[in-house]
Amino acid sequence: MNFVTTWWGRVERPLQKSGAGRLPVILCAALVGVVAGLGQFGSPVEDMLRSARNLARSHDASGQVVIIALDDKSLTGVQKWPWPRRYHAKLVDNLTAMGARRIFFDIEFSSNSNAKDDAILAGALARSKTEVTLANLLAFDPVTGTQTNTFPIPEFRRHARQATINLGYEEDGSVWKIPYGVKMDGTFYPSFAASLAGSSIQEEQYFRLDHAIRPESIPSVSAIDVLDKSAPVASIAGKDVVIGAASMQLADIFNAPGHGLISGVYLHAIAAETLMKGRPTELSWLLMLSLAALMMTLASSFLRGFRMLAGYCVVPIAILAGATILEHFLIVPAVLPALLTSAIGILIQSVLLLRQRMAERASVNPISGLPNLKAFRDTAPFVTDYVIVARVHNFTKIVASLPDDCEKELVRQIAARLSVGRGDSPVFQSDDGTFITLFARSDSVEDHASALHNLFREPVTFGPTRFDLIVTLGVDGEVERPLTRRLADALNAADEAFGKGLKWKMAVAEGVEDTEWHLSLLGQLDEAIERKHMWVAYQPKLDLASGRLCGAEALVRWAHPKRGNISPIEFIQAAEQSGRIDRLTAFVMDDAIGAAAALAARGTFIDMSVNLSARMLGDDGLVAMVSGLLHTHRFPPERLILEITETAAIDASRLAQLTRLRELGVGLSIDDYGTGLSTLEYLKCIPATEIKIDGSFVQNLSTSMSDRLMVSSTINLAHALGRRVVAEGVEDPASLEALSTMQCDEAQGYYIGRPMPLRQLYRALARHERRQAA
Hints:
seven-stranded mixed beta sheet; 774 residues; alpha/beta; 29 helices; eight-stranded mixed barrel; 31 strands
């Protein structure tokens, strides 16, 4: 039992990994079929299947062979058995007169009777113009194995042909086969069937009878009617006739598969009818088994799940149907091993699918049908992805307000929004309004998280009823931690984001190893700058009035050699909180101003935007640093735009720094306008030259009237105050067209260009200039 369990476990695991099927199932099933075929254990069942197919294609005989039946009527008419041979002589004379084509006697004349009757029959044979064939028999003693050859007596042999009446017997006494002929005393004698069919095959081989021929369809004439000449001539003329016992009293009875007990003379007629259609051929069980395995392989290759099982179920039907068609053309296959192979395959596949279905039910939310937390824990192949958790804080209240059958639709709408831009990763659902998805590791998880949150600004709808969703997101990117630990950290991050009024938050790991990582992050940040693991990406901006690329925003990226891409949110927040943001800002600003200056040297002039943390405004050396970099790269200050982020409120000292920067000639931009601190207060007190409308408002221009009004009014207000407007988050042509209609000055977003290395920015600007020139 332990062996079987171990074997099954080894088989089942690869099957489940390969989609519950494929090669292991087929190999296991085929092995059982091969054992059955080699051992020939199923011969009785094979015979039953052949009988069933014969019944399905049952048909009539051709009528060319006619039985002259020594039936009960004939025995009563003569009232003596064996018949005196003068009666057989009279049958020969009358059949000849009636125009019989050939005459066959399925009666042994191997011994003498009385001389007079023998002479009468010999005379009839001699004068008959119709060819007469007499029976001989090759017999074996079942005890001693001695061979006995039985021939007609010499007087008869001189005037007639000879053929054997040997039959082939199975263990149960049924007759499936008859030989083409036998050798007796060194001479080959054809069988009655071969002689009747005119076969020239001289082989001591057996052929299989076509038992689909119905015995009752073989024409039969009572021998007594031939003797008294009452039989219709038309029933005999031009036909081959076989004279033989057809009475149970004569004990010449055999088991014909599918027909029961019939007289031996009918078996010869059926065999003759078989050979008249051609030479029967038997197909090996191995060929049919291989065909079944091939069909199962094809089903496994193109189908999955229950469709694959349905494909397997088609195999035995196809095998049986094909066998029935082949047998119509006298090609006789052995199908049991093939059927057994397909049956075992169906059984194994059914068990696997049943277990898979049970496992799926345990891994699926019963209401929504989404995979649950158990399914998430089994998602080991995705450990390198970001884990994103969406907390719907009012989920329970919304569900309580809906009819019972609407919860699934609520979940569907939530999952549809989480599915945007996530590739093939599924959406998982817990029972408390928490949803988890996975996002392929890249440097744009911040944009993705923000975009997801923006999608949840639109209410869910149920007919005329609308519900606002209160959603925060938590993101975990610690790929080296266990998946369940990462999920817990992402959940905590989502809850912390809710408590702090944030859209989303990156999780901070708390393990010993991760604590060491975060403690050493600042030191590694310096090293990353020196070793060029830290680099700057540039996202282009479009001037809507002229249609040219007019600027770019510098965005810092960190490609860690071991941890991969580190989220900017993570290391920028750490740098701000530790007071080390100045080194990072200086690195980005130096790279950005140098890049813009290099472009200007080539004749391409663009504005360069650099993010400036509000915490930097407390640094007295800020203005000197900016001035020094502008001087070093000989870059005009009016083309540098510093974007003020909302990480800290603006007090009097910081406002003074901004004023000095403006006096230097640098442009100032209020970033993420419309969210957090960057609202009218910023617009009122900061000497900004432009404002950047947050992408969460821009992305919903086509669906949200309130966002459309907010964007339009913000543009009008900014223009009235003499400030330019940049709209970020433009991801489709409709949004771009709407902004142009609202007379927005510049646009930025994925539709215009993603963040890219400096070389790609060079090429993008060159292509755009060529298109503009054309």
